[in-house]
Amino acid sequence: MSSLLPAVIIPAFIPSPSQGVWHLGPLPLRAYAICILLGIFAGYWLGRKRWVARGGSAEVLADIIMWAVPFGLVGARIYHVITDAELYFGEGKHPIDALKIWHGGLGIWGAVAFGALGAWIACRRHKVPFLAVADAMAPGIALAQVIGRFGNYFNQELFGKPTDLPWGLEIAPGHRPPGYIDFATFHPTFLYEAIWNLGVIALVILVDRRYKLGHGRAFALYVAGYTLGRAWIENLRIDTVNEFAGLRLNVWVSMVLFVLAVAYFVISLRLRPGQEDISGGPAAGGDKPSDTAADADEPADTAAETPSSEEAVPADADQPSADTAAPGSDKDAKVEAGSPTDRPRD
To answer: Does 237 reside within a domain?
Structure first.
């Protein structure tokens, strides 16, 4: 009976995608761009849930993200072009290629740095604590990286050294770098990084749920967790990059950022324990702090300036009358008992 069943062939490698671009009439739909956009939406969705759960306004966060995303995309491309300038400038190169973002080439460090700058500007406009936004968005940034990395799969780029492991990634001959033409399968570093980032997401969410991380510590934990994995994954890659002292540039950047993130986490925990309360004020979509304070002060000032009926002059108080007025006085000294003296208001 079993001999009649068709044989199931399981490939001993991850096949390369058949194509990375589809055309909808004259409009090309590129898998790389689709993965980036899906990652942005997924990251925003997760960050929004965390922000609202803390009492923040979804509308306020949406406006902040509208600043952060374009800044991040521009920064990601700038970082890539600067650190891989030899790909676009020099003899035989075409500088215009630096603008062709659909061919791949987005640096996460530039995305985070410029995205943070855009978010900071928006936070200043809304008078919202920037570090609270960074904490809420930290796992969302990692989720965006998880999905975005699959764009590298469709572009058949940023893979690792040759391997014959069952999960080796098949790379078409046209995408293999010089010296590796005779190798068919390579380490799927895009997949390694995606799986690692899923662990970072779980780490940040679980630790934050247990200890209520605040003042940028959830974001610092994300940076430390991501860079720890990126350092060893980066060493598997074989794409041509700049090196210093025998290490790839992004390995150095990962190590430096890991140390800074851990140091910030420890120092911040000692100096500013606890978590910011964003359930009121501008973060929750309310009035600005200065406006709220001004409104709160007005009733107190009015009460101080306008006497109440209980504070009016009592009826038996000594009051000058026509009988006791000084002789020859031509002033009307009559004051009705119990009526307060009129006073101008500010």
So the answer is: yes
DSSP letters for 299-313: HHHHHHHS--GGGSP
- By residue range, what is the domain housing residue 154? 36-58+130-284
| Residue 339 region by backbone torsions, left for phi larger than 0, else alpha for psi between -120 and 50, else beta | beta
Is the residue at 85 inside a domain?
A: no
Could you give the count of Cα atoms lying within 13 Å of 289 in the half-sphere of its Cβ? 9
Checking if the pLDDT of 111 tops 50, the result is yes
Q: Is residue 186 one of the residues assigned to a domain?
A: yes
HSE-CB at 260 with a 13 A cutoff on CA atoms is: 11
Sequence-separated contacts (24+) of 199-205 with Cβ below 8 Å: 199/225, 199/229, 200/139, 200/142, 200/225, 200/226, 200/229, 201/46, 201/139, 201/142, 201/143, 201/146, 204/138, 204/139, 204/142, 205/139
Classified as helix, coil or strand, 12 is: coil
- Inter-residue contact 38 to 267 (CB < 8 Å): no
- More confident call, 309 vs 284: 284
pLDDT, tens digit (0-9, with 9 covering 90-100), for 114-159: 999 999 999 999 999 999 999 999 999 999 999 999 999 999 999 9
Residue 3 domain flag: no
- The count of domains in the chain is 1
> Has 149 been labeled as part of a binding site?
yes
